[in-house]
Model the fold of this input.
Amino acid sequence: MIPELGHYALVLALALALIQSWSPAMGARKGDLALMKLADSTALAQFAFVAVAFAALTYCYVTSDFSVANVYENSHSQMPLIYKFTSVWGNHEGSMLLWVLILALFGALVAWFGVNLPATLKANVLAVQSWVASAFYLFILLTSNPFRRLAELPAEGRDLNPILQDFGLAVHPPMLYLGYVGFSMAFSFAVAALIEGHIDAAWARWVRPWTLLAWICLTLGIAMGSYWAYYELGWGGWWFWDPVENASLMPWLAGTALLHSAVVMEKRNSLKVWTILLAILTFSLSLIGTFLVRSGVLTSVHTFSNDPARGLFILVILMVFIGGSLALFAWRAPRLKQGGLFAPISRESALVFNNLFLATACATVFVGTLYPLLLEALTGDKISVGPPFFNLTFGPLFVPLLVAVPFGPLLAWKRGDLYGVAQRLLVACAVAMLGLATTFAFEGTKAVLAPFGIGLAFFVMAGAITDMVERIDLRSLSIETIGRRAAGLPRSAWGTTVAHFALGVTLLGIVCGTTWSSERIVALKPTQTVSLSGYDLSFDGMVTKEGSNYRETAAHFTVRTGGTVIGVMEPSKRVFPSRDGMSTTEAALLTRGVSQLYLSLGDSNADGSIALRLYYKPFVLLIWLGAVVMALGGALSLSDRRLRIGAPRPAARVMPQPAE
Amino acid sequence: MTRKQRRLILIGSSLGVLAIAVALVLGSLRESIVFFNSPTDIAENKTAPGKRVRLGGLVKTGSVERGDNLQIHFKVTDGNKDIPVNYRGIVPDLFREGQGVIAEGHIEPGGTFVADTVLAKHDENYMPREVVEALKKQGHWQETAAPNPARLRQSAK
Done:
């Protein structure tokens, strides 16, 4: 009964979405306010119905209703309750349901909060949002129905893929999808603006919070995914330049560029056409990301088995939306009036510089990710493009961008003074040189790039706070003055400072983690000791534990440094009988400040020894800490009063409102 | 500065950055492409020794031998030819006899494949697409070969 209810709710959501695809757009065209207003109710109702469908599936999982095929294949009655909730989206069908739930949520948010949006713009935005929604409802109902019943009731479920039985699944996919799908707002606003044929600074002021929200979620989602892969896959790496990872990085790069170009549009009414194009491209890259993950066309370490028919369906959706929106762009964009002028040395130009490098870096990732597909289609050769490609192309393009980061916020709008800014950055430069020299003194020529990387990271961090240090008058040494000034500054300015500073933190983590990470792979018998980077780990013996739906064999280690015990580590292997004895490796982590010791188990050998992989990762936590702080910077900026209240209706240009 | 000059600077610098990016892409793409080979391809000497390649197929049943010092030897087969593989280190959880595998490394002049990476998969039923095609070519792939067809259908990130 409950699964059928969920199924019907989804069908009704599709029906509503189809209505919403037409009525508001027609209303906006004819100036019929009633037709336009209809979209508000349908958007809210759509969300309600998708929420019912999602709740129905969740109910089936929590009550372990194995008559539903999806639950049978991905759940187990003995699984801990939290995984029963998370396994709702730990599979293809459920994750697509989560996708449309978030899409419907954003639609409902526009309907609810967009009270002072111009009526026609709001109507068009909701219509475009509904086109996307209809396509994905159809996709779910036709190819991946999560509510399909089995003819016979199985006694027990097949269990969730053990790798996914982790807290990471609770956070990573929802955050990632909030990011991917959140960019649909920017897309809908862009397409609506193209349909209307005009665009102004108020438009950018509307789009920016939505983009920022999506960007925050995507940043956290990527960081969480990276940390999850780091501790769960047992290889000690945090980024593999794998197609599925690149699929999430591309929208992030484009979205970051969009955030910055929207600033120019809002403040200076310039870069309009480019901002529209970026909004379309960002969401297109999100769709491509969904396609790459869902279709399995690229071999990836993160791929799960897939059905090619679904890939084809998503490919069609992809072509219709990307092709359609780009065609609309080509047709209507020339009508948009170009905005103000600016000098080559100005804040605007700095932001163009940012966009240029971010977009180019994004393009190189795109080429590296999709080249294997293209080559196979053309020549039949099967290839893979490895990490060296990305390091050699992405790296050099990011260096000038990072050097420019501290300059941007210090330059004035319209006409900046590069020499003056360089003078203000002298302290930051000195800090960078100090970092470079210290690293060089310690390391010599062993790691050539490390001193420069560290110097650059210090430059970005010190440069980011330069402006704030001056504006809050830190040197006055009066707490009262500092406090008063700090509180008086707009939160968006603080957001910029925090996010740019965090970029430096992440860079520092990446440079230190890659340069000074040390690794040992050994086979060890009980009572033996292994040492790495000043830490001694003695193997005390094996422990067996019974988990709820698995058996765990853990190796107990005592960690000492200089003779003092600082902790224990228990890396383990879990065997899941319900999955034909599939096993997972649970790495043990010992955090020392922001550095980590990482220990993971391999196979047991005949002579009683066990294979071990031990890493020491200095400063590695800075990578994710930086990402979290970056998202925090975004949140600060989002909480800015100016954005929260939204753009006031332009007084001069009153929208022609038809009489009711 | 006139509007024209400003626009020229913008377009010029954009093209400059793009040109650099294209040069970087073309320069490094040649270095970092790794070709995928089936055991038959390698047995027929399509690959030069020492060149970095990916080898994909099934781990031949009964071929896995563990040596000292974390050495592991196994054979990768596509049903037609077998290639012996040497690897030192820890193999992924889903490395098993009879399962699909992708090894990355190079071929020694003697015909042994020395792998430095053995790729992990997240799902016991997932078979890399290249491996499926290599097996199909040799006529050793049956859609029903999986333990339970219902389970072939699933799973997500």
Observations:
- Chain B touches chain A through 56 residues (CB under 8 Å).
- The helical segments of chain B are 3-32, 39-43, 129-137, 149-152.
- The mean pLDDT of chain B is 78.
- Strands of chain B lie at 33-37, 53-59, 65-66, 71-77, 82-88, 100-107, 113-118.
